[in-house]
Predict the structure.
Amino acid sequence: MGFMPKDIIKGIAARSPWLYRINAGSCNGCDVELATTACIPRYDVERLGCQYCGSPRHADIVLITGPLTARVKDKVLRLYEEIPDPKVTVAVGICPISGGVFRESYAVCGPIDKYIPVDVNVPGCPPRPQAILEGIAQAIEIWKTRL
Amino acid sequence: MLEYLALPLAVLLFPGGLFALAFGLVLKGADRRVAARLQRRVGPPLLQPVFDLVKLAAKRTMVPDVAFRPVFLGAPIIGTVAMMLAAALVPIAGVYAPDPRLGDLLVLLYLLAVPAVAMMVAGSASGSPFGAIGFSREMVLMLAYEGPLLLVVGAVAVKTGSFSLTDIVAYQQTHGANLLDPVLWPALVAFMAFFPANLGVAPFDIPEAETEVLEGPLLEYSGPALGLFKMMSAVKAVVVLGLGIALFLPTGPEGALGLLVHAAKMLVLVLAGMTLLRTSVGRMRIDQAFAFFLKWPLALAAASFAVALAFA
Amino acid sequence: MNFLGILMRNLAQGPSTEAFPFGEATTPKGLRGRVHFDAAACMGCRLCEQVCAPGAIRFEKRKEGLGFLLWHNSCCFCGLCQHCCPVDAIALTEDWHLAHPESEKFAMVEEGLLPNVACAGCGKETLSIGVNVATLAFQPTAEELAQLHALCPACRRKASAAMQAARKDAGTGGQS
């Protein structure tokens, strides 16, 4: 697309970030909040152009919940590689950021940024849907710079 | 010189190609926006499908190692091209009459089958088990809805006495729209059941179900290849709706006003037949959908066909 | 056919979507958000550190005094620290705007310092008494509080005993 200024293309493309959830051993609390943010009319993410996609290959913004438990570590890392660049990673909840309340467990492989480059953190246990929306908005800003 | 250009222009610009693509994307955007309002949400902007396409063009297509590369990359191209050709075949009363060299209703029916086959083949070529499930479900669904479609088209063709869409439109302009003919009302109902299944809209969005088969055939697609599939689906909407309007209610004014009226008819058909339906029902299972199509739509279409044949 | 009525009613009622992030979001009263630590009120009992569920609170004895550190990325916002603090030195505010980029990950802290003071009585380095606990225990006037503040526990015991005796005298003095 050499005949159109790159910035216009990037500006248009940035209005359609697709979200993809990865549950890395989460207790499901943050996943419930993510489902709430997506599905209920009060916190419509479609206004921002986002939609939840079923396939990792369609994803732009990756939302990771859960401390990386030993059981799913390899699968999550493999799944993360399947997501095409450019992508932005958002750690939702305190578990991926620091291990959360499960920090010193033998089954937890530690904060997720030991294995995956994280871009935005949304602390909370679980974070409010509005806080998650704020994190997604910040992630969209970062994604614009990577397009 | 211009006569030679008329055909390619019809395919590439109006009413096929760019026009059908733009119109299809706007229809999809309207469908998403109205669906959101029906669910008490705000919804995406009207041009959201355009933004989606631009974004998909900016990403890269990843081809899995186990995929069969020529088919994996060729299927969306073939599907989109077929749909753009098909859009040039659909007449818009008073505005556009397709070139008879392009083909008639039978060619259109064949072309309408190509996107479904492209989706199926893409699913099997992608090498993933979810793709294979999507392939088989799409095939079953296609078997289910092709029957009623053929009988509906047959009923209208028998009544008109010709398989040419131009003749069908001309017949209705002199004898009154088929919408007003009671003989064809069962066929109309069958068509209203057929087109959500063809366009992959709830309750018949089974092959592409996100939560069940992880988007089925589209699972391994990304970037421009996925964008081509989205384009194919947008143009298919224009083609199928255009076909429905040509079969049942093509009458309208000429010229630019005729184009607006045609667009308005399509919008009403999308909102009433697709949006209302998909926001109010859940998804059927594939066996339920198959059984459904083999019961009422087939029976109604067959009834219309039989009566039209009797009175012909 | 009921759902058609519902859909039409939805269309008529319009969206129920909250304006955030394009407008203000409603925050319910009592929402447990960012933690606020009041170093002046704290008495250094370290109960909050004991009850903190994910271990987000750390106290550290430093040269300057007792340092308090809470990392919001480890805090699960349960409110146990606020519930157990005897002197209301730690509280959860209603601020939930905590999303941050990865570069600020270790900056999401609430810090505080209970400074060491040189005792006015014996010169030893000691932690000064928290304002809230002094108020609870002694009901002092402002100048009495200033006096008690700069004393080590041993000298404070002597000073407060003298204060109580003086008050009793003043009381009986007034009566008689």
Summary: Residues 23 and 238 of chain B are 7 Å apart (CA to CA). The first helix of chain B runs from residue 2 to 12. Chain B has a mean pLDDT of 87. The radius of gyration of chain B is 19 Å.
